[in-house]
Amino acid sequence: MQLRFSSFSAAVVASIIGFGGTVALVLAAATALDATPSQTASWVTAISLAIALESLFLSWRYKMPIVTAWSAAGLALVGATTGFDIYQGVGAFIITGVMLLITGLFRPISKLVESIPSGLSAGMLAGVMLPFVLQGARAANLSAELVLPLAILFFIIRTWNPSLAVVAVLAAGIGWSFYSGQTTGSFDIELSTVELIMPSFTIPAFFGLALPLYLVTMASQNLPGLAVLRASGYNPPVGEPIALTGLVSILSAPFGASTTNLSAITAAICTGEESHPDPAKRWQVGIWYFACYFLIALFGASLVALIAIMPVALIMLATGLALLAPLTNALMIAMSQDNERIAAMTTFAVTASGISFVGVGAAFWGLVAGLFAYFMLRLRR
Q1: Residue 113's closest CA among 12, 219, 207?
Q2: How many Å apart are CA 197 and CA 89, to the nearest integer?
Q3: What number of other Cβ atoms are within 10 A of residue 190's Cβ?
Q4: Which of 67, 230, 273, 373 is placed for a possible disulfide with 55 were both Cys, Cβ 3.0 to 4.6 Å?
């Protein structure tokens, strides 16, 4: 088997975008769950290793460029919740993995999730992401001299290469922070270790974390991920890849890792002609993708330490910019159907409000409110 350089370059670009573009969301989610620095480092290490192994196996098993990732929207959801700790978070990640495993094994359940109106799912996603985008704009109040040039750089880079814009902002921001002395400490390059975190299973965490995370993962990652593969001429199995990500998520969650899923954005890079001119051989990109994420897993602790010493304004800006395009896409989907708009905006408003009732977060109540509005409007018609 001869590996092409194009497969290597596609995997490297996809890994840099997938990790660098949204790693700030992992830190935001870990902060929301009051994870310690060692637990956060274990989170990054375990989830990167899970992505590496899943992508290698799925690509080799089905001879298709099937790669996995973490869910930016899912991490944003975790980061937007309050009142939960890392132990409840791990319990919720395990439950989410169980639900994904069952979904992959029993097709009627995935059909039930698919039956949720797309506008409502998109409204929930938009409501989860909006606060982070607003925080990105507010970062200018903390350090205008850092944020404004980086924001300008983002839109300049995005004009020619949208995929690398956030990575460029992070790279430039890290470099400037070191040069200007705005870092808050130092870090050493060292191999990562993982830490076992005992899960805590609670009813509020199920409704406030696990169930919304499951719905977000299916709606914003797994279903679009399958669509990307089909658009590239492949016919991937529906159940087996989802079941595998659920199983691996169950095994990696006790080390802090949140749920993994089929990739949508980075998959578009790996499935294109740039990765290999022969569609039958594009699966080889999964080998290099594995190598890249395995390397990230080895030095996950150092990467977390590096991001942790950066100015808060830089992390806020990078997070907001990373979610700007997904927020736009979610709002477009939410408004696309006339008969779903009011219900979708109800879901969006309740979710974005950040309310919490009986210990359950806004994402769940946003979906409940949207479904109620949707069925009432249908009843009227």
Answers
A1: 219
A2: 10
A3: 12
A4: 67
